[in-house]
């Protein structure tokens, strides 16, 4: 029996987004692309899976086997002018941060939180049909909230775009007839020969007291790169 | 999830509702233009405070560093001696959020802790029986939140004991102006009343920054989550309706208190769209203002029109379905609340 593959398309659109790669300290930055852990988090929240539960372990084991493609979709304004994506830095106070030594700092600290503004992304998750069908259903009617990296970053369009049998059909939902090479995009790759960047954002556990991530190998193509 | 969305248009002239580390009103770029911004946490605090005034019986959660004194008092009431109670309360504060070693005059915790009176009483009673801080804290169950709807709505983060974390049932986005905003600088001088008449000049001069903006504000509430066992499942549907009614009223009316004496930004919204949907997730209508509003006739009326257009476009494009759509000023506040809360279960 062959295991069928599907392609789940997601749309991450909203005026403020924040995709943290290193948010333990008092500069909580955002990356320029959604992280795989954030996408896993959106799906797990939609399914109503608690942090650190055994369901989470099962879910993340399946999620780790997926391949994702993230596409930066430029926002256009009046007269087709492309809006530049910017980083916004918000000043905020926070408690219980982590020190570099790993211990909890219980004093109130000033933090700077970054957000992306005027950004929009398309995401395609490639995985087994059975697993993605379950995620797709949950995204359409999530148990918990759906937000773009931080709870205050509410989407401005439904996050679920569609579940397709082919990658080209999923792409069609996100970028229409425009070729993928016209966009800056980031893809999971299998080995070093296919991509040399690695990101520490493959979630192993979201448990509050024991968050774990493993590295993920990716390749980022700039818009215009054809291979 | 079954949820409620509030989309609010509100004009706030000459104010500095929320400022950054340089004392400038916060801003953000959206649609390529700078907007006035009020962070979600700033507006939420004003809403929490107002909710306490509207329904003091349901919103009794307190954020405090001073929980030692009430804890010790509750332990004495449960039969412990004054010394036992004071030491016991200290061990609990230490187990929850650590005692601040620098506090001299009275025992303080290192950070604020969000606690409901029922939780406090339960910990104190358990401690009196068990004489063990960890066991006493384990005695806190979701049903002890029945007098603290604020904790269920706005959430609680606890670093030391994750079992006490409560996920917020509400979601707020940062309020953004619907139009381009440049911060302005107010130069002011103050007169010295005791200055002799023959001397001229101001007693002091300084500047402060402000702006004027018509904001789009957005809040949502996960009604399923609010009614689950970890939140307010212990309440009756009628009590939960009252919680939601209070949430709506406070979200609509509350304004951050910053510079309320010098600038008074205390206005009321000119338009509120309330939506209840059985399925899906909250979606804000901010894209109505992606092209910043430009008009010679003021911003509010045009913003309302654009908001309504965006909502019908979203419904049409994505097939969104609502079980309730109500708008102020078409209906009055109390009818608005009645219509929306009739969908609370």
TrEMBL record, chain A:
GO molecular function terms noted in the UniProt entry: RNA binding
GO terms for biological process, alphabetical: defense response to virus; maintenance of CRISPR repeat elements
InterPro entries: CRISPR-assoc_prot_Cas5 (IPR021124), CRISPR-assoc_prot_Cas5_N (IPR013422), CRISPR-assoc_prot_CasD (IPR010147)
Alphabetical keyword list: Antiviral defense
NCBIfam families linked: casD_Cas5e, CRISPR_cas5
Name of the protein in question: CRISPR system Cascade subunit CasD
Organism of this sequence: Desulfurispira natronophila
Lineage: Bacteria, Pseudomonadati, Chrysiogenota, Chrysiogenia, Chrysiogenales
From TrEMBL, chain B:
Pfam annotation, one family: Cas_CT1975
InterPro entries the UniProt entry points to: CRISPR-assoc_prot_CT1975
Superkingdom in the source lineage: Bacteria
NCBIfam families in UniProt: casC_Cse4 (TIGR01869)
Name of protein: CRISPR system Cascade subunit CasC
Taxonomic lineage of the native organism: Bacteria, Pseudomonadati, Chrysiogenota, Chrysiogenia, Chrysiogenales
